[in-house]
Write the structure tokens for this entry.
Amino acid sequence: MAVTKPRTPGDGTPEDAYTAEPFVPDHGGLPTLREAAANCRGCPLHRDATQTVFGQGAASARLLLVGEQPGDQEDRQGKPFVGPAGKLLDRALAEAGLDPAEAYVTNAVKHFKFTRAEPRGRRIHKAPSLREMSACGPWLAAELAIVRPELIVVLGATAGKALLGSSFRVGEVRGTLLEREIHGRAERLLPTVHPSSVLRSDDRESALRGLVADLEVAARALG
Ligand code: URA
Ligand code: SF4
């Protein structure tokens, strides 16, 4: 394990210095990573969230899906994509002929970021900043290095920016198979919309059809 003395963001650490790096073990498998990630303090998001929501799935998975960050349900249960967006994603994957249980599912950011809405203090999702995304990047890099998927499905803008850079625009590349070098490895990526955007859409049925059509490209790429 890399035992650098952790700095505690929020105690005067400048935003530029946010990083999960000192917390990421330099060897071991997914269980080792998951255990270490539970104690990550690489950025301030760990302070208000319930727990780290690490990726889930087998190290042997051929398909790896990347979302944005855990939502309310995920934060409570400690697992990615178990709330409404996850249910919709599972349905879309199945319709595209992909088995959700065989995929490795994770997020660009591993802690839930939210604000409280009055009167009852309901927790409202807040988009992570670029700094928080890059701080959390070492966890995603470590997951990719272990799983070494045949294909990465990029769900929405945050995952796209985390993997392909801040100029990523989902509308420009959705449904297109991309080949890029990421962390020194040639990866195949298939960007599509985030399942939450389907849930928010005025025309949910056609938004779902679009997501399924993109995922069918992924299914064909996997053969
Ligand atoms: N949205 C995401 O991006 N990830 C989750 O795990 C749940 C909802
Ligand atoms: Fe660490 Fe990522 Fe959580 Fe920030 S969001 S504390 S970098 S696991």
